[in-house]
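@channel sequence for tomorrow's demo:
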Amino acid sequence: MKENKSQFALLGLLADRAMSGYEIQKIINNSIGFFWQESFGQIYPNLKKMEEKGWAGSVQIEQEGRPDKKVFKITKSGREELAAWLKRPPEKFPLRLEILLKLFFGNHAKPEISIQHLESELSNEVKMLEVYKNIKKEIGKCSHESQNLYSLITLDYGIGLAEHNIAWCKKSIQKLKKELSK
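structure tokens (generated this afternoon):
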């Protein structure tokens, strides 16, 4: 049976502080969401399962003029599960990149179409690189040094990948344009 890794992502976030599902989604969007996606449709059912397993607990917090907020907190058992999961080697997941699939079959279309796809990919990668660099500046301003180290390690991966992809897009576009000029 395939293990639900979403629960470990949520445990990792709750290990830092108690949060509502909405707050978890915001944190995901601005941190691990660049490499690990979780939707509200995944977060809430997983939080419920984590409570049933005893990995998390929750409290209702009254809010003035708004519905009550349910805040989740990791339990001792949840911390133990997170620690055990962190010790295990990571699984490899199948890679699925549509841009590569389209380029692989590019000989069945006009080269201009592949060039357009690559130019769009290049634009997206340039934007992501800028986002990563801005995040790196913000992390540098924070005071949680031990968390910053691990955040920076994952961020450096994203920066390196974006820089590689930018270079690859440019080189691939040049190759296709050269082929067009023959």
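heads up for whoever presents: Residues 145-180 form the longest helix (36 residues).
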